[in-house]
């Protein structure tokens, strides 16, 4: 299993923002500091700004800042909003892919339990824990 670049960039933005809570940041500044494309970061910022995790202040003296204290930002919750597709095998999303994957498929159950445990493990930690 591999997390998307979107999730990677999201965690990196949140970590940077938590380490620099006293200042407003710009997308350009984040792109430079994190060595990530501005284009990709704009998508991340747009998504985060729709949540309580990031505040986007418009205008000439605007910028970005963390919306919640790091101890209130749960990594599992962040993971859930950033990973659109935690489907690690095709048959979970498209049951018609495999004729054996109907009804009570044991493999599907194991995969669902594993994904739940993965998210559960992330949910044990906050942004503060990884600072």
TrEMBL record:
GO terms for cellular component: cytosol. Its cofactor is [2Fe-2S] cluster. SUPFAM superfamilies: Winged helix' DNA-binding domain (SSF46785). Signal peptide: none annotated. InterPro entries: Tscrpt_reg_Rrf2 (IPR000944), WH-like_DNA-bd_sf (IPR036388), WH_DNA-bd_sf (IPR036390). Keywords: DNA-binding. GO terms for molecular function: DNA binding; DNA-binding transcription factor activity. This is HTH-type transcriptional regulator NsrR. It comes from Holtiella tumoricola. The lineage of its organism: Bacteria, Bacillati, Bacillota, Clostridia, Lachnospirales.
């Amino acid at each position: 299993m591999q997390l998307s670049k979107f999730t990677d960039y999201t965690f990196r933005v949140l970590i940077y923002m938590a380490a620099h809570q006293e200042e407003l940041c710009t997308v350009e500044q984040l792109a430079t500091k994190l060595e990530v494309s501005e284009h990709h970061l704009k998508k991340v910022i747009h998504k985060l700004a729709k949540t309580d995790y990031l505040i986007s202040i418009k205008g000439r003296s605007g910028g970005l800042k963390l919306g919640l204290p790091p101890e209130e930002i749960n990594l599992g919750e962040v993971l859930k909003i950033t990973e659109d597709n935690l489907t690690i095998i095709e048959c979970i999303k498209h049951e018609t892919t495999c004729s054996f994957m109907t009804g009570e498929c044991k493999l599907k159950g194991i995969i669902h339990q594993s994904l739940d445990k993965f998210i559960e493990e992330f949910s044990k930690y906050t942004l503060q824990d990884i600072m």
